[in-house]
Every structure is written in C-alpha cells, then in structure tokens.
Amino acid sequence: MAGKKISPWVKGALDWGPLVIFFIAFNRLKDGHYEILGRDYSGFIVATALFVPLIAISTLILWRLTGKLSPMQIATLVLVLIFGGLSVWLNDPVFFKMKPTIIYLLFAGILGAGLLRGKAWLQLVMEEALPMEHEGWMILTKRFVGLFVALAVANEIVWRSMSDSIWVDFKTFGLPIILIGFIMAQAKLFERYGIEKTSEDSAPPE
C-alpha cells in the first residue's frame, strides 16, 4: 500500500535533521568533558546521546506522516538504537563508529541474498520513484552491493586510523556525497532501462 505524500522539505528535514544536529553538537562539545549523574562523558558521547532519541523521534514522525517506513529506515533505526545506546551506556564511542559499517554490510548482505535468488530487492524500495525494467534493477542492485561493501571498508579505515573530528566530517558529509555521486553516475543505466509512464497513467481524467 502506497504511503501518503509529504513535502520533500519536511522529509529532508526529518531524514537529515538528526545528523546535522549531531554534527553541530559534536563540534560545540568535542573539546570538553561533562559530568552527568556522576559519570564523566566526552563531547562525542554527549552528542551521540542527543542523536539517538532525535533519530527515533524523527523516524516516528515520518511514519505518522507517511504511514510507512522502508526496510532500510527500520534497520537503520534499530542499529542506531543498539550501537548508539551501547556507546552511551558503556561510555565508549567505538560502538557508534562501527554502526555505519554494520549498516552497510547488512544492506549489502540483504541485497546480495536477493540477487542469489534472482531478485532485485532494491526495486521494492525505489521502484515508485524510479520505474525500470527488471534487468536494470538487477544491474543497479549489483552495483549497490559493491558500493555498500566499499563504504563499510572506508568507514572502518577512517574511524580506526583518523581523529574523531575527521570521522564525524566523513559521516556527515563524505558518505552522503559519495552516495549522491554514485546515484548520479547511474544516469546512463536509468536512461537505458527506464520505463516511461503509460499514456493511461499520464492522460487527464475524462
């Protein structure tokens, strides 16, 4: 069942708002240490503690407005709650830094499992916005599997070998830019396998 349509501005604010707030909070708090309920926390952990409930609230609002959530949105929320919660509870940022790696490997594994069965499960998420022939979806899904594996490896390299500030910049700006650039690079695939709306769909009502 199709969900309700909402303003792209509202959807963008709900999708990106928590990450932007995390970025701002981290940069304001990163040089300090904060005592909360008798425990000493770094600015990274405090920013994480702010991000986790914000993404839960934004996802809930998105669900209430649209009436649906994609499997990727649900998986992302669950992993944020688990790994973000572990970082705050154990006062260890490593768990939160590992979250993108786990998310990307999970997505790659799910899409890869579908490919082994001859199915392009990415189509279930994106078909409404991007109608394509089945062959096009199979090719795009294979490319996304490779992308997600590469992003998982890149995240591991960055958080393990670079500073918290560089990792936060990479997560906030680097990963989205790579994803957007990847999608734009598929223009020829979309052009070759795209399906135009039928005249019945586009014709005005009689």
TrEMBL record:
Membrane topology reported for the UniProt record: Multi-pass membrane protein
Transmembrane spans: 12-29, 41-62, 74-90, 102-122, 143-161, 173-190
Major site of localization recorded for this protein: membrane
Cellular component GO terms, alphabetical: plasma membrane
Keyword Transmembrane among record annotations: yes
InterPro entries in the record: YciB
Cellular compartments annotated: Cell inner membrane
Keywords per UniProt: Cell inner membrane, Cell membrane, Membrane, Transmembrane, Transmembrane helix
The keyword Lipoprotein belongs to this UniProt entry's keyword annotation: no
Pfam families membership: IspA
Family as reported in the entry's similarity comment: Belongs to the YciB family.
Entry function: Plays a role in cell envelope biogenesis, maintenance of cell envelope integrity and membrane homeostasis.
Name by which UniProt lists this protein: Inner membrane-spanning protein YciB
Organism annotation: Thioclava indica
